[in-house]
Amino acid sequence: MKINQTILPIVLVGIALGTAWAIRGQFGHEPGAAMAGIIGGAALLLAAGRKDWYNKMLPVIASAAIGWGTTGMISYGMVVGYCRAGDWLNSTYGFLSLFVIGALFGLIGGGLVGLSLNSTSAKRVNWPSLIAEMSAGGLIAYFFLIEQAELLMTPPRSEAWAICFGAGAAMVWHMVRNGFKPALRVAFYAMLGGGFGFSFGNFLQITGNVLKIPFNMWNVMEYNIGFWGGSGMAYGVFTTEWPVENEAPKKYENSLSLLLILLVIPLLVWKDAFTAASNLMDSSFIQKDASKAQFLIWLTLFILIAMNLVVRFNLKDKLSYGRNELLTLFYCLFGTYILWSFLVTGMFMGNFRNEQPLYLLNLLVFWGLIRKSTSPFIGHPSRERFPKDRWGVYFSVVILIIFLLPLVALMIHGGLPHANLRFPIFP
């Protein structure tokens, strides 16, 4: 088993999505998560190295944006606080809840990417039907789980996790019913990776806080969500045999996908981060200086316009896409997201944060390693290189690890500041 053909492509996707998800911590919500999905989806196609996927890169990346962005609606601040409690019940509840939330990130994010790859001229995904089913599933699950059964995970905050749970369940049923098994594999492994990554990442955050490591440990947790979720998604893709796609997407599919990737999602991120008074004028490095705020608004808008022009010029009038077009798209979007993170936190105005140079380092590492990576689809079929799926075993092992994390955490602390209690502790 060659490292550069098996492990390295998986790690590359983990690095890209992990870094983008860590950057998302400075932007938040659905648009920030969707930007991370764009970067992770592009990295997946680069690491895959399949020529028949280059032509469909825009719809696949758009699917990654929608899938990973949808779960950005989930609130998890309270859940992180449960993990900091000094008792086993609340701490374990917190870690298990983080697994559920992270699993939903991966399930929908990886699932929509898998379906986009699975959709070929021989067998198309019925996207309108899927969207309707997922929407209905989300509403039904929220009604029964929250309104009727009152299974509240994060009271008094939003219980949008139930919407994502219902949407994810409907998506899985759509896959099973229509025979999209390759997409189902991707959804499963991305689900395991995202769930494990969120719980394990928070364990690292707690450990760093206890040891008083002078670093943004919240960002470490965010990086782990993306790294393990991206790695799980990549494993599912790279160890599955996929049908060959001989037809390019229709022009309107590429146009709508490009509009979403280059304009709609970046503009939403820009609006929330750089034009909201509470996020900008009240920042410590702006200090209500209107001239500084205006300069930052126009500078970041100029970066967005320049990025659009470079990518659109590179793709203009081309009937088919290749690796160079994908690389341009990836580096332009990734570079923009990193630069925006520097600007929104005031890095160039004296507000240095020690985790941010690592974003650039991760991009450089990706640039160096992608040149050494070999497509995992070259050579023998993946089923001959990897053992048979044992989904029940894999799931059980991960859940066991999640149960062990609070036990280890409670060995090194007896309760931390900003802890939340979901259940009362009786003397």
Could you please describe the fold and organization of this structure?
This protein has 427 residues and is an all-alpha fold. The protein has a domain at 3-125 and 180-252 and 354-412. The chain is built from 17 helices and no strands. The chain has helices spanning 7-24, 29-48, 51-54, 57-70, 77-83, 88-118, 127-148, 161-178, 181-210, 217-238, 251-274, 277-280, 290-315, 323-344, 356-370, 382-385, 391-412. Helix 2 (29-48) packs across helix 11 (251-274), helix 9 (181-210) packs parallel to helix 17 (391-412) and helix 14 runs antiparallel to helix 15. The N and C termini lie far apart (56 Å). The model has no long low-confidence stretch (mean pLDDT 90).
Structural class: mainly alpha
The topology string of helices and strands comes to HHHHHHHHHHHHHHHHH
Distance between the termini: 56 Å
Shape annotation = globular
Number of helices: 17
Beta percentage is: under 5%
Mean pLDDT: 90
* Largest beta-sheet characterization: none
CA-based gyration radius: 21 Å
In total, the number of strands is 0
Q: pLDDT under 50 segments (min length 5)? A: none
Helix % is over 70%
Task: Explain briefly what this protein structure is.
By secondary structure, this protein is mainly alpha-helical.
